[in-house]
Amino acid sequence: MTTSLHQKLEANATAVHQRLDSTMSLQLLAGEIDRPERLVDAMRHGLLNGGKRLRPFLVVQSAALFDVEAEQAMQTACALECLHSYSLVHDDLPAMDDDDLRRGKPTVHKAYDEATAILAGDALLTLSFDLLSDPACHPDPQIRAELTNRLARASGLGGMIGGQMLDLAAESGDPDEAEIRLLQRMKTGALIKFACVAGGVLGQADAEEMARLERYGETIGLAFQLADDLLDVTSDAETMGKAVGKDAGRGKGTLVGILGIPRVESLLAEAVEEADACLADFGDKAQVLRETARFIVDRKN
Q1: What is the pLDDT of residues 233-268, one digit of tens each?
Q2: CA-based R_g, the chain, Å
Q3: Helix H or strand E encompassing 105
Q4: pTM of this prediction?
Q5: pLDDT digits 0-9 by tens, 196-207
Q6: Right CATH number for 3-298 from 1.20.1600.10, 1.10.600.10, 1.10.260.40, 3.30.390.10?
């Protein structure tokens, strides 16, 4: 990862944090009656706990391909981060992955309680669509509607949530490679793909440009999950900021388990080449996205 990309990631993470902090610091929005303090605190705990903010970064950088300023893309980026954070809050619950740590800090249900964590996740999910549908996201209601529809599809039954269901089922089954690829494309890849195409929606990309962004998003979505599975085997809890080795402990099938580490490392290298090919027609404007693909493959946590 180049110093330049590191600085861009850090700057974006700071901007996203500040925007989300400001959103969560509001006393009331139009039509709201009250904001229960404990619920707000739990939402903040699950939302403002650090992290690379990779998905918002992808929104901003994909929008930049079409000369959309970062500030114009920030509302969409923050909406996606709210939804992603909700998924992590719920994923950490005892009924799901049962994790005590997230980014090196107690998970929401550990810091508060299970019921509050469920409601905090629900509220973050709802907030994401509040942000997308607000005119501050984009002045054109058709663009706001398309973003809302695409995020709903990426996060719902045929996307992330459906993938989580398949992931839970895989713990008691014996999924093959195709089944694992499908659940990972849904559970992890769908939101990453949305992050990439959202920039195209904001920038009013044509059909060919959208197709290239979709393929890029699918490619790095797979790479992200492959790298995550590899780190679950090769890294440690201190580096990762969460428990490791849990997939094997729960009998969960992964491509690392089926294909082995050398083959997964080869697939990661192929993903970088595929990402480069997807971005070729965007020229120098896509350099940051090229570097991001390499960062995803080489990341250590």
Answers
A1: 886 666 656 565 566 556 667 899 899 999 999 999
A2: 18
A3: strand 105-106
A4: 0.93
A5: 999 999 999 999
A6: 1.10.600.10
